[in-house]
Specification:
There is one protein chain. The protein is an alpha+beta fold. 42% of the residues lie in helices and 20% in strands. Helix 3 packs across helix 4 (42-55). The protein is elongated. The two termini are 19 Å apart.
Length: 152
């Protein structure tokens, strides 16, 4: 269903979606291996990846890091309720805090959701109270400790 919807709304074909699927699984996959899996030539993969980058479908190639292996023992998904008139300012300030890995403005239970990495729960508590909680316009901070990441 996701593939069909992506194909219909983006103008991408099955080959483009296949390339994205392989690279999303492991962005280090050599183009020759992508070509083999999809049954196309390496030069076709190269051209299509270049086009996907130019169109903005691929924003960057990255690495997935295990925070525990880097000494971050406390990872939290943090819901932040902000005064609507200060929403963008609060989100920008949250982006600047050390330990904040991602920030999204949402329409769900919280107006901002952030992923935060800290060495331990004491550091996490300090970051949330003295960092996030001290930003003008923040009404409430609702952390949820990540116990285990199953995907993404």
């Amino acid at each position: 269903m996701v593939r069909k919807r992506a194909r219909e709304s983006s103008g991408m074909d099955e080959v483009d979606l296949g390339i994205l699927e392989v690279l999303a699984e492991d962005s280090r996959t050599p183009f020759l291996e992508v070509a083999r899996r999809l049954g196309i030539s390496e030069s076709a993969v190269r051209k299509r990846v270049r086009a996907l980058v130019e169109r903005g479908a691929i924003r960057r190639f990255t690495v997935e890091v295990d925070p525990a292996k880097l000494g971050f023992g406390a990872v939290a998904v943090v819901g932040i309720d902000a005064d609507p008139s200060k929403l963008l300012e609060v989100a920008r300030r949250v982006c600047e805090l050390e330990g904040v890995r991602s920030v999204a403005i949402t329409s769900g239970d919280h107006s901002i959701v952030a992923e935060v990495w800290a060495r331990d729960t004491r550091e996490l508590t300090r970051l949330l109270s003295e960092g996030v909680g001290s930003i003008e316009g923040v009404k409430r901070v609702c952390p949820a400790i990540v116990l285990e990441r199953l995907k993404g």
